[in-house]
Amino acid sequence: MNQSVMSLDRRQFLGAALAASAAPAVSAFAASKPLVVGGLPVTCNLTLPVSCVASGNQFEYSKYNGWPEIKESLMAGRIQAAYMLAPLVMDMADKKIPVKIVSLGHRSGAVIMVRQDSPYQTFKQLTGKRIAIPSRFAVDYLFLRKMLAREGMTPKDIQVVEMPPPDMPAALFAKAVDAYCTGEPFGAAAQRAGYARTLRMTRDEWRNYICCVLTVREELVHEDRPLVQRLVDTVMGAGRWLDEKQDNRNKAVAIAAGRKFFNQDPNIIKFVMENPTDRVTYGDLRMIRSEFEELMQLSIEAGTIKKPVAYETYMDESFAKAAKAAPINL
């Protein structure tokens, strides 16, 4: 039997049992804490480990290695919430998969890396070269396309290679690719090791860049709005806390580097947080319609979304509008 069907049957059984005993109504989600939230081990998702710890484990981080795996888990109902690529959520919602964006997760955080010893200073010099991206749905790819367009180029002028971000630094070191475009800390890993440098950063080129968004299945919204609101409040609180002072970022590095979360070298995550300090930012998590519409237009031009998707189809602003940033005591 399909797992999502099994979960539904269990919720119906619990609901009937509670009604029969005249006990207070409690949703299955509220009765089975913590809420599992999927994410990737990337600094664009850093508000998630902070939120999990700060919430007293109301939320539990589930690490995935790639966007396709998170997508499949959300589609099957194995998880009810996750950090996802914004264009991918638009496409999923358009295909009648019941998901909604309820919050941003970060701003900025993508880089285009080349070898330290390479002559590349402009994109014209990358003509015909191999450039790795995480996915054609990734906003990193849209960032690359924007940079190419500024020099009158298109992706046809380069060789685009899709590759998991953790494999990119080694591929650049081995000269299997000439450049790569991805989120952190996979740019910082190669830069800190001394064999790579940034060609472009979103902090300099696309200040309102957004990539990862907090996404939930609609049944979670219907069955436990207070839980979704607490999650959004905590994520927003984590974002403000991260941008308040460097000491908070140092605490976040120690949390995220642990085996329970990213399981990465803390020095690499710390490098992202310091070089420069606004390489990734988290304090401004406003959801601005025009920014999402720009992302959609860029995605349509890239061919990853076939037609415009109505804003209300993939977005639920109600939680962000009602949000009260939770205090983060860590």
Commentary on this structure:
The protein folds into two domains: 25-107 and 210-286 and 307-322, Periplasmic binding protein-like II (D-Maltodextrin-Binding Protein, domain 2, 3-Layer(aba) Sandwich), CATH 3.40.190; 110-205, Periplasmic binding protein-like II (D-Maltodextrin-Binding Protein, domain 2, 3-Layer(aba) Sandwich), CATH 3.40.190.10. It has 330 residues and is α/β, with parallel strands linked by helices. The protein starts with a helix and ends in an 8-residue tail after the last helix. Helix content is 45%, strand content 17%. It is built from 16 helices and twelve strands. Helix 12 (246-257) packs antiparallel against helix 13 (266-274). The protein has a five-stranded mixed β-sheet with strand order 2-1-3-11-4, with helices on both faces. Strands 8-7-9-6-10 form a five-stranded mixed β-sheet, sandwiched between helices. The chain has a two-stranded antiparallel ribbon with strand order 5-12. Strand 1, helix 3 and strand 2 form a beta-alpha-beta unit. The protein is globular and about 55 Å long.
